[in-house]
Amino acid sequence: MPANPALDADVPAEAGPPEEAVGPLIRGVGVLRRLTEAGGALSPSALERATGLARSTVDRITATLARMGYVRLDGRDVVLTPRVMELGNAYLAALRLPALLGARADALADALDESVSLAVADLDGVRFIHQATRRRALSVSFRIGDLLPAERTAPGALFAAEWTEPDWVRWRARRAADPQDAAFPAVPPRQIPADEAAFTQRAKRARRDGWALDDQLIEPGLVAVSVPVRDPGTGRPVCVASVVSHTSRHSAADLRATLLPRLRTAVTAMESDLRTATEPKPGPPPAGLATWTTASKHQLGRDFVESLARGLTVLTAFGAGRSALPLTEVARATGLSRATARRALLTHEHLGLVSAGRDRAFTLTPRVLGLGFPPLSRTTLPRLAEPHLRALADALHEPTALAVLTPDGTEIQYTAGAGASRVLTVHITVGARLPASATSLGRVLLADTSPAFPEVRAQGYALADEELESGLRSIAVPVRDRTGRAVAAVCVATHTARRTLESCVQDLLPELHRTAARIQTDLHTASRFAPVPPT
Fold this sequence. Notes:
The protein has helices spanning 5-8, 23-37, 44-51, 55-67, 85-95, 97-112, 154-160, 165-177, 196-209, 252-276, 289-300, 306-315, 327-334, 338-351, 373-376, 381-396, 440-449, 454-459, 501-526, and strands at 41-42, 71-74, 77-80, 115-122, 125-132, 147-149, 212-215, 222-230, 237-246, 354-356, 362-364, 400-405, 411-418, 433-435, 462-465, 472-480, 486-495. The chain has 535 residues and is α+β, with helices and mostly antiparallel strands. The protein has three domains: 23-89 and 282-377, Arc Repressor Mutant, subunit A; 97-276, 2-Layer Sandwich (Beta-Lactamase), CATH 3.30.450.40; 381-527, Beta-Lactamase (2-Layer Sandwich), CATH 3.30.450.40. The strands form four sheets. Strands 6-5-4-9-8-7 form a six-stranded antiparallel β-sheet, sandwiched between helices. A six-stranded antiparallel β-sheet has the order 14-13-12-17-16-15, sandwiched between helices. Helix 2 (23-37) packs across helix 4 (55-67) and helix 7 crosses helix 9 (196-209). It starts with a helix and ends in a 9-residue tail after the last helix.
């Protein structure tokens, strides 16, 4: 079924886009939203059904998004890629709250051994901007960017305590249009109609007490206690901090009695951090975007929807130190004309992705996180690496692998790999361990953390020539995180009869470096505001 536009934007169901809105941009954003709601992957035919668009339109949009690096075509599916997270990263960087308060939330989660989240208001819902979760068999599965209905959460009651009558009117209209919460895929469908009187009473209590409880409002067993983090200047909540658990560990009453005081202490420290924070210096905006989109149009022809690409690049003009931008600054940052930037901003405003202040400076809204961020915010390094390892193996016709050092540094553990279609080939089992010093993967990683293998450290790669097994030859390079630390290594393995040592360096190494660079790019994008486990 086609999506309901009333659930996609802060506009009435009968209202259409403004005259100057960019139609291809509206349709492209719709495709990204449907992919996000589906967990990150859909076939083109499923996208056709979900969006109500013609198949030819879906194909042109996905080709454009693929050119931008936001999706990839994997077999029959269109799959979101880590690069699409740059849209959500722009919002989170401009917001600054994750950077300023995230460490406090992480420390509280460690101290309590419970999940801690930060959420902001998104119209009549709440959206997570930070998650510090516990890795247990039974754990909370919310992700950064997930949207929840206000009435089914503790943060929602605290935000509703500040609502005006128009806010309540909008909330009632949404409930009437969507009684089962179909527009909130992160929560189970509602079985019992929302009780307006109960929610208004919870909002009044939250306003009076300065905290709120979620006693299994979302689903049985899930409980939470929440406290607002207030702006030092206005006194209004800028976000809400929550401790989340389940009834096998804490009852709602127990959360209030034992964990609420410690949550309040952490929130007091967060508010102190906000008072003393200094404005960040604006970083460099994206460069050459307009030129790139024009060149892409010339190369791909009608399969590249230039207005969609230019419209999405407008969102990346924002960031740290660039939280509110007038039209002139948006145009300058993207290289677009004022007219093109203006039409894109008007379209994004219609879709609820940007808002305009009284001074006509534009800001991103939390709704930007709904463009691909949640499915990717819980990714791992092996998942990021797998498509790149497959592409490398297909290009070289040799097996590839990703590995990390074990905690004691004596072994490597394989975490991902891709095979090659050969009779004589290397079979790499994910999870297998080998002595680090006898493998090219291990030597690259050891050279980064100890005085061992100084030659490897100097040249940036390692070769292993039949030291692990007769006939086996491999070459490896490091994969580095945002700090420059080698967190993994990637290698190509071959047989001595197929490649000489010189051929490994001349023919395999350049492709290996390019693959490591692609994995690093994805890792740096995905890990900017969400942790990416190495295994």
